[in-house]
Amino acid sequence: MLHTQIQITLRAAIREIAPGLDTGSIQVRPATDPKFGDYQCNSLIQLARELKKNPRQLATEVLARSDFSDVFESPEIAGPGYLNFRLLPATLARVLTTAAAGNHLFFTPTETPRTLVIDYSSPNVAKPMHVGHIRSTILGASLARIFELLGHRVITDNHIGDWGTQFGMLLVGWKTSLNREALLQDPLSEMERIYKLINAQSDPERPGFIEGTREQARAELVALQAGDPENLAIWKEMIALSQRQFDTIYGRLGVRFDHVLGESFYNPWLQATVDDLVKRGVARESQGAWAIFSDGTLPPKDDPFLTQRDGEWHPNPFLIQKADGGFNYASTDLATAQYRIETWAPTDIVYVTDGRQQLHFQQLFASFARWKPEAAATVRMHHIWFGSILGEDGKPLKTRSGENIRLSELLDEAEERALKVVTEKRPDLDDAARREIARMVGLGAVKWQDLLPNRQSDYVFSWDKMLALTGNTAPYVQYQSTRAGKVVRDAGETNLVVAPGSLTESAELALARHLLYFGTTLEGAVAEFRPNYLCNYLFELASLYSRFYEQCPVLKAEEPIRSARLCLCVLTTRVLRQGLSLLGIEAPEVM
RNA sequence: GCGCCCGUAGCUCAGUUGGAUAGAGCAUCUGCCUUCUAAGCAGAGGGUCGCGCGUUCGAAUCGCGCCGGGCGCACCA
User: Are residues A232 and A189 both part of a single domain?
Assistant: First the structure.
């Protein structure tokens, strides 16, 4: 796209001036203000300092060796040494016309495709999915779609929690307290109930404490891990019941996975993983458990295996096998990383989890690099973390009765609220049509609220905010796309051409310019794993369209303005729909 | 104690590897539907970007020190 073209030209010119220089820092961005043109480059100032040159002088020299004459007006040097680029009307017309013809949508696929394994959602078996799962699920799915659109190979993997100590309690509960009828009615609630019941019975501090329950749970867990047929059968049934719930929710959210390899899948390799780590001298025995300690290659401050107490640095080991012989998620994650690299040869492995696991992933990545240096050198591992969801009181989110808010209930409520608005706004539509619009609008609102904030911010949950249907929300963007789509439908057959110079109004030009920035926005979103850049872009595009729509009649305009404006409507519709779909949000034809 | 993160308008938050006059939504106030959908548009008010020092042409952004808050730190994930 255009910003890359400018970048390439500038970099070539700089290499002429200063051969051998790394020009990676030369960045071209959309102009911050229309009065500065359409694109700007601020990087020369810093470069001038490195070259010990006057920035404006350097800018002059660079421009003397660059030719933009076919595409831009002659670039201006402004302020301390900014370069400002203004599109020729013919260039704008050409880019819009080729896009309208379907040749591109303001982005180009990458020239260096990567293979990414993206690990997200990861719900637990036998527990209802709650709002806490939404960020990982929505964020991971969105990132997967954006990478894919830009031409990367994406492998999504749902690493579900289908193994672990909680099954000891669940098995005791299943055998002693299961209500079969309740299980048929609502399996997740019943499994949750028996888990909580046994959990309370195991805790001497709690009222329902029963001597020996904890030991019983441990025994059931050991039996399960040893392959006891009865326990295995119950365990499989719990997974099947849970998977049905996952499928329902993922279906509603429009989320899918290439693989669902839960923790249990890696069981067969765990002992070998720990043995190999010990054999290679990475892990050693400590207090009966097996753990990875600092190898002293990093300064203590940056070493994830050290922590400071009372002014002294103490070991902060990564535990990979418990003293009782059981494995934990450290060993599972190490085996998982190994499996993924062997199986898919990825360039990147992306873990989308909450920020509280940062230390775990630092230790995991460092441990893996020491265990498999050759494999680790072929892959970048990213912990893409996000903030916690808090209640209105700033504490971890719970309902009044202390329960988690169920994801299914949140989605139901979203659709109900949207239906009220649709019914009010569009009494002329039939019931089925209203419900379908309400579904897209309600779910869109939820996803938008989740993706709009910077992912690292903590997140204060409120029904009103999560389900907001006005302002900076998905329904606003969806609404603008229906307005644009309606104009296009009403136009009938048209020659989609933007004649050079036919766009002159500031509302037209601002809209057109913003369409061109779609590609650079996607690149930015992918570079930092931040779909909120795309949300901001789409809201801005929708706002610019709305202004254009108020100020510039389309169908009543004279040619060639009519065609040019219609092109803007067509392209706005396409970019909004494409952008929303990357966020997992559907766009109705009418609202 | 150490580490990570946060502190921006009344409220909730953006701010794209340091850039030009710090933005949006909500809320409040004023206008705009006989003209392609008013789930909309135009406008107004509202800021010592927690505080201080530093780095430099230039800091909400980088460094150091405080103040305030959240999270994590050995057998849960």
Answer: yes
